[in-house]
């Protein structure tokens, strides 16, 4: 099958401006139905990616305690408030990242105050369905995380709630990086179609 450059470009755009390496991995592991085996030689970086994926230099890595099994430690963060409401009525995005597997849950929220309800629902589901116990969570000091509901829930289920040092988002690096990836994908798709940000 001869694949033209446009096919690579099309799949790159369809998958949120995924990198060439990511497209290759997705094909190799058959994660996307219908993704053809594409030739990635001499692929030009698209203009939307150049604009949408610019960022500052990162901080040096910080050695923090991590977990050695699934659900041993969950990083959590909230992004928003967005100017435009999603189709489902969300103005915030709640990210939860498992330290061990890097599996990520991305949950749309209408209000910041919904973070606890969604976290509790996810915890109960994971503990009941999978039989895993969540040992610790790590969040910033935002009011959506540092409140009586979170404290009581964590106490009831034996979950240790660790807080980041103030104004140090790099301590929550995994979830901040996931947050950035989603923002870059969104900005890039908006740039490509000349839509307002």
UniProtKB/TrEMBL annotation:
Top-level taxon: Eukaryota
Domain Integrase catalytic positions: 57-197
Molecular function per GO: nucleic acid binding
Pfam families in alphabetical order: gag_pre-integrs, rve
Entry-linked InterPro entries: GAG-pre-integrase_dom, Integrase_cat-core, Retrotran_Ty1/copia-like, RNaseH-like_sf, RNaseH_sf
GO aspect biological process, one term: DNA integration
Name under which the protein is recorded: Integrase catalytic domain-containing protein
Organism: Lithospermum erythrorhizon (Purple gromwell)
